[in-house]
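Subgroup meeting minutes
Present: P.N., E.W., G.H.
Scribe: E.W.

1. P.N. recapped why we're keeping a running log of single-chain structure predictions: easier to compare across weeks, and new members can see raw inputs and outputs side by side.
2. G.H. added today's entry (419 aa).
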Amino acid sequence: MSAAHDPHGAQESGFNLSALALRHRAITLFAMIAIAGAGIWAYLSLGRGEDPPFTLKVMVIVTQWPGATADEVSRLVTDPIERKLEELPFLDFTSTYSQAGRSVVTVSLKDSTRASRVPELWYQVRKKIGDISSSFPAGVVGPFLNDEFADVFGNVYAVTGDGFSLPDLRHIAEDVREQLLTVPTAGKIVLLGVQEERIWVEVSHRKLSQLGLSITDIMSALQKENVVAAAGFVETNGSRIQLRAAPDISMQSVLRLPILAGGKLLPLGDIATIRRGVAEPPASLLRVGGQPAIGLGVAMAEGGNILSLGHALDAKLAGISATLPAGVRITKLNDQPTVVGHDVADFQESFLEALGIVLLVSFISLGWRTGIVVAISVPLVLAGVLLAMKIIGIDLQRISLGAMIIALGLLVDDAIIAV
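Output recorded in log:
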């Protein structure tokens, strides 16, 4: 005789995580402690930044052709580049601009292009442009390809000095840059407000006519002085020495440069006014407190901590400032670590306030057991989220911090539902 079937006494079938956790309480407690510890470690070691990294899917191709008209630049430079780029996969569109002596082509990829594919596509662009560059007319300079638009210089410093010229400040800033590159997690460092140095040769047309010279004669002499050419080898029994004619372009060499005029060799300094200066008009200018300055823009390496980078830069610059010439100062213009520090502090404050309010309401309205469940579940889930962010590679920045603040309400609801 078979026993009657009791549906209430039947054992539940299937996987039940809650039942499994209750049966193995020691393992469950160990897992909770491990997740909490791993979450604390992840929070302390996660990278910190103001905004999440992004990939800009745009490249600019600039080609120079001095002396050419806009129509020649368009037909012989811009159009071949544009036709070649039509072979590029994931190409959205190209926009072109041709003017006398200059061609600009902007390449835009489709929005659906994966960020991981973009470096490979830019490599293909460089290869395709390199394939057709030999077909450009003589005198074409370039093309120059630029796809580095997404660099964020969170720390910007200015080098100023009383009585120092811009070239002097540039040399000092270059030395400072070399030392800052040794700071951990410091990425690209660029100089801002740099003016290229020039040696200006100014000749009076009246004086040229008196000597029977032309501007072309002066330019030809300067170009010959600046030629780098092989001069052969010297063979000995034990060695073979290469000879090279190297250029010597300096103020003194230009002043002494011989110019043939009227059957006589005259130094260029007797014919022209020669001075050292910077390019005119200036490409960019940087002034701090009314003084000309050279800027230093510091970008953080990928996955770095902007707070740690800021402290390391401050410590490094404190040591560098003690070795600078008298009158030279380094001024901080932009301090992203301070902004990020405030964002992280705001998140911590919002999290603690929300948790405190939830616990207070839970203890008063639902009793101490519910409050304990909420008090344990919310930080534990956040610890797991921080650990997952560390594994996936998501840093603490405004987007991720905002998402976690929004998720606090959902975590509290889940905890109360579980109770």
